[in-house]
Amino acid sequence: MTRTVAAFGSWVSPLSAELLVQDVIHLDYVLVEGDDTYWLEVRPLEEGRYVLVHRDAAGRTRDLFGPEFSSRTLVHEYGGLNFAVHHGTVFFSNLADQRIYRIDAGGEPVAITPAPPSPRSWRYADLRVSPDGARVVGVRERHEDDVVNDLVVIDAHGATPMRVLARGHDFFAAPTWSPDGHRVAWTCWDHPNMPWDHTSLVEAVLDDDGYEVGRRLVAGDDESLQQPRYDAQGRLTFISDRSGWWNLYRDAPGGAVALYPLDAEFGGPAWHFGDSSYQPLSDGSLLATWRDAEGTHAGVLRDEGMRPLTLDWPGVTLVQSDGRRVVGIAHSPRAAPAVVEIDPESGSCTTLVESFVNHVDAGYLSVPRDIEFPTERGLSAHAYYYPPTNADFAGPPGHAPPLIVASHGGPTAQASDALNYAVQYWTSRGFAVVDVNYGGSTGYGREYRNRLRGQWGVVDLDDCVNAATYLVSQGLADPDALLIHGGSAGGYTTLCALTFRDTFAAGASYFGISDLATMTTGTHKFESRYLDSMIGRWPEDRDVYESRSAYFHRDLLSTPMILFQGLEDEVVPPEQAAAMVEVLQSKAIPHVYVAYEGEQHGFRRAANIIRSAEAELYFYSKVLSITLPDDISPVSIAFEERLPQRDPSRGRGAAH
Question: Is 137 part of a structural domain of the chain?
Answer without folding.
Answer: no
